[in-house]
Amino acid sequence: DQPVVLALNNGATPHVNALADDQFEWLATHADFYRVAEVHGVLAGFAMAIQHGTRYWSGNYAWFGERYDAFLYLDRVVVAPDARRTGVGRALYADLMSYAAGRWPRITLEVNVRPPNPGSIAFHERLAFRRVGSRTYADGEVAMFERDLSVSSGPSTA
Prior knowledge:
Layout: H1 2-10, H2 21-30, E1 33-39, E2 42-51, H3 59-65, E3 72-79, H4 88-100, E4 106-114, H5 118-126, E5 130-137, E6 140-148
Parallel strand pairs: 3-4
Antiparallel strand pairs: 1-2, 2-3, 4-6, 5-6
């Protein structure tokens, strides 16, 4: 699945950053959570998350590392255009929540503010992620989110 997943990832820019083959290979082998979703045998989406303490080049990951001592960082979620609004994203998040429960106190992630991604911000807010900061760089800005797993925090992901 890796060439197809990489193509799906790189087709989703600017909502996720494009990756070279070696970067994708590194993520695939270092992700603590790496799931693909298929619908009728066709790749419909994927998610990758990395635990705190991993030596990772991401500035967004480092931002969370400076503030939290324990987290699972959701590095990327991509749903194929023809699979959006069909429950694939919710299924990937439900699997992530189930996987993370009891292992980490929180899940962290960022969402683009510039370029804007209001649909993703609304989706994460519905799933009880809360904005905990922002990060600005030369060509964009992201909102930093966390979901506290130590307490029941709102709507179910199922």
